[in-house]
Design a protein that fits this description.
The complex is a heterodimer.
Chain A lengths: L4 E2 L16 E14 L2 E14 L3 E5 L6 H8 L7 E6 L2 E2 L5 H11 E5 L10 H12 L3 H14 L15 H13 L5 E5 L7 H18 L2 E5 L3 H4 L4 E6 L2 E7 L25
Parallel strand pairs in A: 4-9, 4-10, 7-8, 8-9
Antiparallel strand pairs in A: 1-11, 2-3, 2-5, 5-6, 10-11
Helix pairs in contact in A: 3-4, 3-5, 4-5, 5-6
Chain B lengths: L2 H14 L1 H39 L3 E5 L4 E2 L2 E2 L11 H10 L3 E16 L2 E10 L2 H5 L4 E4 L4 H6 L3 E4 L1 H8 L8 E4 L2 E9 L14 E5 H8 L12 E6 L5 H16 L10 E4 H44 L1 H9 L4 H38 L7 H27 L3 H6 L2
Parallel strand pairs in B: 5-10, 7-9
Antiparallel strand pairs in B: 1-11, 1-12, 2-3, 4-5, 4-8, 4-11, 6-9, 7-10, 8-9
Helix pairs in contact in B: 1-11, 2-9, 2-11, 2-12, 3-8, 9-11, 9-12, 11-12
Amino acid sequence: MVARERREAGAASGPTAVASSDALIVVRNFTKDYVMGDFTVNALRGVSLEIGRAEFVAVMGPSGSGKSTFMHLIGCLDRPTTGDYLIDGVNVASLDADERAEIRNNKIGFVFQGFNLLARTSALENVELPLAYAGVPTRERRERSEAALEAVGLSDRAGHLPNQLSGGQQQRVAIARALVSGAPLLLADEPTGNLDSKTSDEVMGILVRMNEERGITIVLVTHEMDIAEYASRVVVFRDGKIETDRLNQNRRRPAGMPPVAAVPVVQTKARA
Amino acid sequence: MTFFGLVRIAVRAFSRHRLRALLTALGIIIGVGAFVTMVAIGRGASEKVNSQIASMGTNMLVVFGGSSNMGGARGGMGSSASSLTDSDADAIRTTCDTVKYAAPMINSQAQIVWNGSNWASSITGTTPEYLAIRSWNVQRGAFFGQRDVEAGNKVCVLGQTVVDQVFGGDDPIGQFIRVRTLSCQVLGVMARKGQNQMGQDQDDVVLMPLNTVRRKLFNMGGAAASSVSRILLSANSASDTKRASAQVEALLRQRHHTVEGDPEAPSVRDLTEFAEMAQETTRTMTLLLAGIAAVSLVVGGIGIMNIMLVSVTERTREIGIRMAVGAKGKHVLVQFLLEAILLTLAGGLVGMGLGTGAAKLFSDIMEWPTELGWQSYSIGFSFSMVVGVVFGFYPAWRASRLDPIEALRYE
């Protein structure tokens, strides 16, 4: 692995010429302003970033740095004030709410800190949810959901309700839900924030495995350095801008997984 | 998201808050229940009035003689010297083209005796046209003919009540009964007609030929021998009754040399007017009751809206999750709208059941006929559906317009 220091890509540098077609996410000059009465909060002040397929990126930064806002924008949960955003070749900035819902449905999977499973709904039905909104026939929906639960090691818990599952199990159900539609991007917002360190390692293990075995691009928002160390690239936000963007030389490996050198990592072009 | 899937989500949401769902639906239950009961009672009433009107006669008008006024003492209807006669009936029949039948009649009370039993009944002397006007049939035996009327034959036809009271289980046909002092043979028995609108038993009657009553029973002579107390008329059709009434009144004024408004002039009563009045009364009652039911449906609908708004707020996070995994606005809208509709429909069905029970109970206790038609069920059903759509739409729309991030962050 070559260790390279990436320079920060601030707004000051202006529009970038890069539009590499194989990048999954291309963000150009994101700004996001929240108007609160007489004040305007500039949550993002010009962020440009490119994330390649099968990258595992950790987004860090203190609270108020804009990392959550950035997460919502690339998750198509919100729209930027200005800026362009391409995901999987689709320009999202011009899409309306329903079209963004479709992008969320088939291109993005979410994993949240609070798990966000539907209460009183079985694990299997929670996993089926994205497929239900995609209009997948019941039978296929069931088969794919069972496969997704199996991938996170929870086949035997399919009929359990969220309150009958431990935190780690709930988060694995959420990961299965994020994977089930075959989305190329998984957005994880503090996924281990409510878990102890052993369980955190298990959950991170699943994410690493999905990244390496399936080539799923993972963007992980966290404020814990030891969680960020599982990623191959770390982007740090500060004051609505990217402060640093570097490759991670000493990736932490989840328990029971071979060291990183043994795994062929798909590397994307670094931005100049 | 399939329809069935949405129904399951809705049922799950209700089962989480059973008592709340029941209380919410209560407004609709009461509204639809009241509606079904009220319509059943109203329709029962109007059915009762209709059958009473039908039992009175077909397009019937009644001509009364004018009232007399002797030195200030007014003698009442038919007491006038210029009272009605057979020839008035004949004149009406021949000159008034709107009149189909005319039956002169005379009424009295008399004691009837047969084989040791006796009974006081009403005696009606009339002509065979009486049957057509009152749309009344002979159940057994025969009615007397025009010849019996002219000859004053000593025959009679009995109402069911008289048969029951005087003959008990015996066959009256061919028997001779004594009416006051007159012995006459029973030709037939009338079909049962029941009570009229005033609650009088229409079957407590002895029908006899007009001349038999006047000449043989009461020994009338001279002018009285051709006088009648009233004339029953039947107009050609229901729409003709008003014209017939005017025509007959004009004819009788001319024949009796009276002017309009003279109390001594014979008067014509259009019985369809009573019928219309009674119909109008029941219709007003039905409308009033339906109005009360509609108000309670609206109140129930407001309750639905209120609870749906609470439910949307409570489930903000759920909505956020659904949106995050790809639910569009329409998915959320349909989900909550369907919940509201299912709630009102369930309430409507329960209401229909309770309404049916209440109507049955009412008719048992109050001895009032009720009529449950499929119309009131289908109206009750569609009303509860409409209430669900109208009052469920706004909360569902609010849910569908939630911001995904705000919804996900909601605690």
